[in-house]
Amino acid sequence: MDVELVVLNILNGISFGAVLFLLASGLSLIFGVMGILNLAHGALYMVGAFIGWTVAVKLGFNFWLGVLAGGAAAGLIGLIMERGFFRQIYKRFNEQVLLTFGILYVLTNLSLWIWGGVPKPPFTASILDVSFPLMGGAYSAARIAVTVIGVGLAAALWWLQAKTRVGAIVRAGMDDREMTMGLGINISLVATLVFCLGAFIAGASGVIGAHLFGVTLDLGLDILLLAIVVVVVGGTGSIQGALLGAMIIGLIISFGKALLPDLAMFLIYLVMIIILLVKPAGLLGRKI
Amino acid sequence: MSEAGSQPIKRTGQLRLTRFLPYLIVVVLLAVLPALIPSYVESIMTKVLIYAILAMSLDMIMGYTGLLSFGHAAYYGGAGYMTAILISKLGITSFWIVAPAGILMAGILAVIFGFISLRVSGIYFLLVTFALSMLLVSVATKFASITGGSDGLSNLPYPDLGFSFFTWNFTSYYYFVLIFFIICFFLMYRIVHSPFGKGLQGIRESESRMSSLGYNTWLYKYAIFIIGGLFAGVAGVLTTSHDGVIAPFHVGVTVSSLAMLICIIGGSGTLWGPVIGAAVIILVEYFSSLYIPARWPLVLGGMFILTVMFLRGGIALHLLNLWKKVSHGIHKN
Amino acid sequence: MKRNKLFILVSILCLVLILSTTLLVSGCSGGGPAAEVGAKTPIKIGAMIPLTGDFAMWGDLFKNSFQFALDEAKNQVAGRPIQLIVADEGGYDVTAALAAAKKLAESDKVDVMMAPFFGGSTLAVTPYTSKLPIVSVKYALSATDEIAPNYVFSSGVRFQDSTYSVGVYAYDVMGLRTATLIGSDFSVGHDFAAGFVDGFTSRGGKVVQQQFAPLSEADYSPYLSALKPADALVSSVCGPPAEIALFSAYDKLGLSKKMPFVVAEGGSFPPDVISQMGDKLLGVIGSQLYLPGLDNAQNKQFKTAFKAKYNQDPDNMVVTAYAAMVSVLKGLEATNGDATAAKLAPAMSKLQLDLPQGKFSYSPERFGVQDLFITKIDKVNGVNQWVSVKTYPQIQPYKK
Q1: Cβ–Cβ of A255/C276 closer than 8 Å?
Q2: What pTM was computed for the model?
Q3: What is the ipTM of this complex?
């Protein structure tokens, strides 16, 4: 096997995985703490990407400002969703599906209305918009940056979860909600904060990932499906799990597409099924 | 008032009437519908009936037994593909062969997928069933020489019943589907109201209790999964003639999620809830796409959100309460 | 609180009941016996357009193109007014398109139909329209199967015909001898690829590798990592999202130094995408069915009028849709307003039109016949755009 092919695809897989992690971490946190499978999470990613595009490309501001704007917009929508609807549907599966699907439909159509159907080309910060030479070809600096950001966020979230009081509360809330409430902790405030954080990350990662995926209306559902696979494989409620799952999926997709393009998606779902049968809590997760 | 002795019989007779009156009204309404509406709306109503069968079959698994199955389109589309392949690729057109073959295909898929999926439960069951249906989408897209690939198989005809004097149109096909709908509803009704059905509901409430009472809960769940798959297959066979085309779309996430949404909005855990849900979602989608062609997803999404806020438990539950109040009022007089 | 909820529920139900009854009843009055060929009864043209779903980006474009043609003809032909009825064909959901077709045919009782944009939907719809029978016209590039049933036309050329000449050009003019191809893995992508391969190999070239990615593919780096050495990279991916994704990945991996980028997809990289992607696109070769700079009287007038009306520069999509509608109108003119399929179809087959893209007619297989332009992205007056480098005139469906 060609060394260049292997190296390229390892890099591709990791950077792809980094974006997946960004999205999956929010999804996993929300599911772990609130017991809600947020099918609208991908839509938050999409809206963040569109807002970031508007700020960074259409209006010409700084890219990182666009990232913040995208995250803020998604966080705001997340806040409305959580305060308005979600607190009533904790662990009520039917309602979650209906509500999050409804929000997905609404957000997708509104985005179509506001930004039109034409997809936007990939964009990134101007300093990152270079390629540096690699093994006879080149590799994009932005993809490396995405990977760094992903891993960095993973470290930050892990530190938050493992080493801070807030993190301890979140973990307690995941393990035993009633007990945590009984200890006098305002679990609903924690839940809101977690949800908004997850939403913010989703929106921001939409802008960060725009370099890899561009900005299209399909993002809502396509990326969500992959993020769900990542959460399953890596394990719900676990940051390390989400990172591991994302890397695995990213690598499988990259190598799969390069070597067996017809079978890449098939392979992904097969892996998902095997993991679910063998270790349902995921590789590093806590069982729900 | 008459003697005390005859009271119970009279009350039972009245009770029975009140219980079956709604069904009677609905069947009569459905039967005379074609006379009231233009023929293309009949085509939409046919779609409602087909999705009603699909959603009811899912409801037996999801609403009555509590198994969150998110890949139900696999059996619907699988049956559709079997039928379409027999007609298009092998030239076998007789309904009496292709229909049972399609339903059998759905059953086989349910036997295999059910066995795999039931090794886990809860949200993991949901994800496995989903992943399995996505595998089927890949297969349908990949083996293009058999399945027509991503374009699917088209130009599928109305059922060949073997009667040369009979010609099909929207109206006759509507009645054809209506007959299947009534039969399926009746069969599913008997299943969920049987001891077996009661056992399923017990499993939904508490599987551990059922199992400690000596029930083989795994067998119950597996059985209803297969039965639900078979009925989904019926819907799939009926859809080949209605749509005239079978494509990977028919085994994909859109159909699976639509079936689930119909169950939830209609009211899972009842049989006629999904019927109402099918009518509501499909008719709302259809009419809003006529009048606000570019914005209809907003209407549909808005409807979902409003249902969660105001009609918790589904439309059926609230209609049931309404009906109880009305019939209670009638009884009092 | 419960009372409130009950009240809301009951009023919503009543509202729904009233609404549906009025809708159903009004649906009844839309019909009546089939429209007679009377002097003043309107001719109804039903158009299935992607207003929602995956192709929604072009929905308004098509609507505007049709309307422009109608306005030019003053919304009437042979003394009969014309009524355009638009329906949403949806995206990949062929059942939605079929339902729209049924509604147009049964309820609105249209006389002519503009077939859905999406090939899979056209495949499902045209057998139905052919049985009615009414003439239906596909207003974009298409495949043989789509227009095989009777009375179906395609104003767009066949997919593989739009790329065959690219293959010929690549060998004859660019001097390429080998190529590696990446395409979208569905029938259209395969057709585009087949056209290039047939054209290229007919001159003696060799396509050393073909990779096909799912249509929704967002990240092409893995495929690019597996490229075999060749004189050029040929792209048969479909639609702006894929075009953008593939080219970006190609550019980021530094491949532009190793092999030129040739597009084998009829009409690609619309103007707004070109302007957004900047100078990296300069030098890319592709094929187009239309260029704003075309030097004929029709185009000069059409361009300014279309831009003035819709504030948009016409492109491939616009002129193909425009051609479809114009051919219907001219056909109706020739039959003196008779829209019955048996009369209209032969009339349309005989048309010889002068359109913005040049001379236009229908081949015996009922595909559009027009010039094909091999184009390069060049900077003209500071603006990057497609510029014609060679014209292959009046291309007909090729036989292998």
Answers
A1: no
A2: 0.82
A3: 0.79
